[in-house]
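Quick illustration, no need to memorize.
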Amino acid sequence: MKYILYRIVRTLGYPIFLLLYRPEFEGRSNIPKSGSVILAGNHTNNLDAAIMLAGPTRVVHMLAKKELFKSKISNAFFRSMGCIPVDRKIHDENAKSEAREILNNKGAIGLFPEGTRNEVTSKEAEIDKVAKILGISHDEVLDKLKNKCTRTTQVNLLIELSNSHKITKDELKDYILKPDESLLKLLKKKIITKEEYKESLLLPFKFGAVSLAKKTNSLIIPYATVGNYNGERDQLITRIGSPIDVSNMDLEEANKLLEEKIKTLVMKAGGINE
């Protein structure tokens, strides 16, 4: 009877989620049906956590920012869904302890190694930066980027390219609202390298996933979600990779491997071969 709300929400919400957003999943069989696992993926949208509700067939305990648990109602709901609140401003030992307990009991944890959304509209300063470049208002930027995947890291790379005169100011204005598409064009023109493009896909990883995996002898399942939550067919794809065993690696080596695996999955999910 434990996590009965989780099972109810998944049973009733899954078909609605499929209808609204039409996600496609590749590699579901890579998620073990039992045993301790950590699902680690990229993060560009508030709905990314729902992917881990819709994709796996087992209960996944998502680590979520503590702000979501503020009210009694939201706290009760997210707790019933098996979520773990995390204070991102500190090394939250309570969250770590709770996650370790779940993994030691052969459960599944879901988290985002980037630690926050790699998305322009997640930060006021980033929105204002884009607004200044385009000469439009804050609200106009939000409207233009609604339901679009606009990675902060890619916008910043475009700004760097403009500052180094590899693209013009007018090109920057044209590219900045469609950074991924624009960077792929620049890659074809050899204005940027494939490594530069690959580096633009993710924020630097924190060590939480690999540290948890090593302390609990858990496998890590890397995955990547690419596309827009706009309900159009072939617009939202989640590719799930093969399990990673980091037990014999140091933290730096393990974290670098995980980051590379997820970058590769992002590229493959987006139809880009390395």
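The CA atoms of residues 72 and 108 lie 25 Å apart.
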